[in-house]
């Protein structure tokens, strides 16, 4: 008899299992994939960051080496080797989770699970008894009407196929200007593909701060990406190794076509709950097909919990991890907590884009009086030395209390810089607290301090 069986070994599930084992519980994890780590390690965060890193290096060699006196760098791309580097990066990480499972005496139950009843998890013909169950089965790419994905053929692909194309395409259409589409689109643009992004809305990366959206799109256009905005995709048809996308512009309903070597469908993800038997078990679901949970990640069935992409909230690895740790604490009879107001989001393009907390628009819609401190990376010595002066830090603080409400960064290392603001927000800090904190010179982090200064007396270098 297990204390806990976790279904799914993604960042939610494996972190939950490790914390539960550290708290003294007997834990098993069911994973149907050949390797641990879920979407994130196998076909998500990690392989995409490997390709972003490699293609960024290429971009640096082509665009910036000569400016620094590094002459005659001639860099050819060996796509098979780049794929091998990506695979090694993934394998190193997934094996690392296997090691951690062994270290923490967690059983990896291999296969696909269903839940025939509370306290029971079935894998193949074996039914495992357990006191509690955590559903951490993650998500899979959402289907788009009129478009059939075939990752093996490599012409109309989703993010999984997009990470493992047989060759670098000369042209690519990305359907959807969200995080995944823009990250992969910029990888292939840097590798030489002509990339066109077709987006239904009039803005990219919906939900992000408006000023950042505009600046981000400008930068991507400068990098060669093309955008067709306000366009509803009707269909995509593959023929003779290419695909034609048909879309209608919302403004006048006119129909257009665009043909490319590869079409990447990146229109979002949906919770992956197939085959678990949740209907028969009587687990309540949300209108949008997520597992409904309370403040302690408990489902409507006693002893069954759910976390990560399977439940509502941002579909992010670190959100899943935090819920994994917290639900393990709850199951072990302790207190588990996730502060949903301080979950950063990062886009790992160059420049990086990062955000936490309220956008200016959200703060205003909520009727809050805010003050904005903005600082451009052009005023930051380190960023300029690295040819990364595009972008800015925008800090949002309450107009009366000076408490930090949010931060939006587009610029070098934005994905790392955002965390000093996260810590400040966790401690309920004011913009002045950040402004009075000494930041080492020359670092790009000085731009965050300058934005905090701009919330008060004024930035020094602007
Ligand atoms: P998952 O990671 O999806 O893991 C669920 C696991 O459960 C899977 O391994 C699956 O095989 C298994 N499973 C499902 N059903 C069963 C069953 N019945 N029995 C047994 N096993 C089962 N997020 C970030 O925070 N940062 C990023 O940079 C980032 N980049 C991404 C890039 C791409 C291309 C993609 C697709 C996603 C990216 N994400 C990123 C999102 C991130 O991958 C997910 O938010 C995260 O993996 C969710 O974790 P999870 O544990 O909920 O589920």
- Shape, per Cα inertia axes: globular
How many helices? 14
Q: Supply Rg.
A: 23 Å
* Name of the CATH homologous superfamily of the largest domain: FAD/NAD(P)-binding domain
Q: What is the structural class?
A: alpha/beta
CATH architecture of the largest domain: 3-Layer(bba) Sandwich
Account of the 3D structure:
One of its GO terms (biological process) is 2-oxoglutarate metabolic process. Belongs to the class-I pyridine nucleotide-disulfide oxidoreductase family. Residues 343-452 form the Pyridine nucleotide-disulphide oxidoreductase dimerisation domain. Its cofactor is FAD. NAD(+) binds at residues 176-183, 199, 268. This protein starts with a strand and ends in a 7-residue tail after the last helix. The protein has 14 helices and 22 strands. Helix 1 (11-22) packs parallel to helix 9 (317-331), helix 3 (45-63) packs antiparallel against helix 4 (79-103) and helix 3 (45-63) runs parallel beside helix 6 (179-190). Strands 1, 2, 3, 4, 5, 6 and 17 form a 7-stranded mixed β-sheet that branches. It has 3 domains: 2-141 and 270-332, FAD/NAD(P)-binding domain (3-Layer(bba) Sandwich), CATH 3.50.50; 151-267, FAD/NAD(P)-binding domain (3-Layer(bba) Sandwich), CATH 3.50.50; 344-455, Enolase-like, domain 1 (2-Layer Sandwich). It is of the alpha/beta class. 32% of the residues lie in helices and 25% in strands. The structure holds flavin-adenine dinucleotide.
